[in-house]
Amino acid sequence: MTGTMIANGPLQVKGLTLTQRVLQSPMAGCTDLAYRRIARDYGCDLAFCEMVRAEAVVRGDKGTLALVRTAEWDHPLGMQLFGRDPDLMSRAARRLQDLGADVIDVNLGCPVPKIVKSGCGSALLREPDQVGRILEAMARAVSIPVTIKMRTGFEEGDDGRFLDVVRIACEAGVGAITVHGRTRDQRMRGDANHSAIRLAKEASSVPVIGNGNVYSGEDAEQMLEETGCDGVMLARGALGNPWIFRDIANYLAGLPAAPLPTPQDRAEVLRRHFELMVPLYEEYGALLRIRRVCAWFITGIAGSADMRRRACLVETREAFHALVDEFASGAPVRETSPSVPAHAREDGDTLPAGSR
User: Torsions phi, psi of 82, nearest 5?
Assistant: First the structure.
């Protein structure tokens, strides 16, 4: 273990200084204000809202604007847009800047058929010139960094266009490029392609952030060493495991590992997550949303599969707390960190209603 690759020195993203090089990915249906509060408690620096549609932002859709609500403590904050019209994207970027964004990210990775059919998300990887027009318009429209999060192509064999997008994005003035090491056709299957991320780094004149299959300090170090990237972005590995931000930073700094969270630790954070949701969604809305969050945390103890099933049925605050009490009293099945939720998605695989 080198233990020095991201511990020393801040990450500069076109005027924005980040103290940590471990970033939190935008994830549809996951990274709301409650999620970001807990992630920041455990060391997350730059956090992202859920992705939103440019047209809905410009129109002032209430559901969409609720997805980008923020607070004084919620900075530095990234907001992610999807769309394909340069004028709409630039107008939406100005609106998000006014709403408190410190970074505007463009989604070039969403593989959802509905988004792809509209020519957005990962479909834009087939149109490097259109990506350039979008980014140039956005960079002129705002004073904060514009970044992109992309995949390594739409399909296998797309290396040429993938690298064209990297070069065009740099020429358009982006502040950083995040590369999820899978093609659109792969969705979430297979290992992240470190060789492709390295090619992006070699072709880029701005910082490159590696994304995909980072679930531990060892994974982060491997990503950094094999790709030469400037930082890592966490997605599914952070669901139900906010400790991962602290743990990766410590590992890369060569510091001793913190004790693994106990079921009691995880139950305490799960309760806090719910209480943070209540003012956002009111009690019943929070109960509906906490069902999914329970599945992130309730893992690795005896009876966890049954608890996850029962979590999907909770309808009262009392029922939720009773379930968490039972979870907290459970014995770990194995000494391990919380596992990665199999159903978790990034890049907009699960679209909240406000973004449609």
Answer: -130, 145
